[in-house]
Predict the 3D structure of the following.
Amino acid sequence: MTEIIRSLQRDLNEFGEDLHLIGSEKLGDRHPGEHRDNFGAGAMAAPATPEAAAAVVRWCVENDVPIVPQGGRTGLVGGGISRPGELILSTARLNRIEAIDPLARTVTVGAGVTLQALQEATAEVGLIPGIDLAARGSATIGGMIATNAGGILAFRNGVMRHQVLGIEAVMPDGSLFSDLTRVLKVSAGPDIKQLLIGSEGAYGFVTRAVLKLESFNAMRATALVGVRDATSALALIAHFRAQPALQLEGAELMWQRYLRDSAGDKGFDLDWLEAETPAILLMEVSAASEDAARTALEDGLAALWEEQELTSGIVAASLDQARRFWALREDGDFMYRHFPAAPSFDVSVPPGSLDAYVEGLRTRLKAIDPSFDAYVYGHIADGNLHISVIGDGGSAAAMKPPIEDAVYTGVEQFGGSFSAEHGVGTEKRRAYLAYGNPARRAVAQAIKAALDPKNLFNPGKVPYRAD
């Protein structure tokens, strides 16, 4: 047991069951999540109430103990890494869905609730959170707020910043900031909650939130369509978004290498796909009935087949087949089984610039090493691409700086971002300093200094201090 845990037990014993303190011996039995160093601190506090969380933070401030906020530990950029001498502050027990208001279409929820648990609860009243992502089973609402998560529905509903109506959080001085507003329209001075959204735990520890809810329609049809490029896929998306009786529920593009390797890993038959198809669009629509959704999808594809030079297509014949379609896109673990150290990236560019960006990326990678290739896939309707660079013998992992430059070159000029939805954490420190906006960095550091002068909240992560 660490000295931090012993001291917390002595000084905060009045919280009883409202505060679980966990040492390295018990953390060793838990999965650390996406990064092996998430439990490096060997000490965790798991409060069950905002008041207990605030008491922990005040104790840490008084004793100069750095705090690492953690949610579901699904982050891919090392934002939850902790080290000896730090204290992990977990949202795991702040896991109550407190109130669902079907009329106002809002939900008040604890930061430790997983997205999937929230989806299941709100579906009972015919509603759904306006955000969805592949890690729904483990990603928590607090972590999604801290990273300003995006996902599958961002093209339609925006990112997490657009879903949050109100926030409660423990600030770096240990005070409890509570603004659990449940309305959309608020014009009453600066919106302080926006500081916390996307701050990656550097400005405070989210304990509760009020989120907007959207309508849910299970009457869906799903298709895989071979397209010549992103521009062709975007034309399909525009067509279906313009249909008044349809709702576009998803639009994901997979370039050829990703689809073929994903399908091979899962035993998915691609005999229907023309061999040289450059990219494949996964598209899902909803309508008044499953028949209406399927008919509209088939008719729309037929009408655009020649105009957009579509090469192949298949519409799911069952819910199970639709799930298998989505698994091709969402289950990307195969990449790291074949290429364990493949450098991975998460960029966004305006949708109309996707083809130029991808073509330039491949040229830049080949200039570094002719063996280099990339898995490219993502949320095409909002321009968010996920990229994993692969090469012979693991050489890509050994050349990360020039690969980063190849990936990030042109992103800002196109009007995009070097980090679209995964955050910055520790993995993107070089990119943040080299490709981030200098004025934005300066303001972020000034806010950090004002709110957290001791630099105790998630130190060593974004926003990086000037020193």
Remarks:
- The chain has 19 helices and 17 strands.
- The chain has a mean pLDDT of 95.
- The two ends are 33 Å apart (CA to CA).
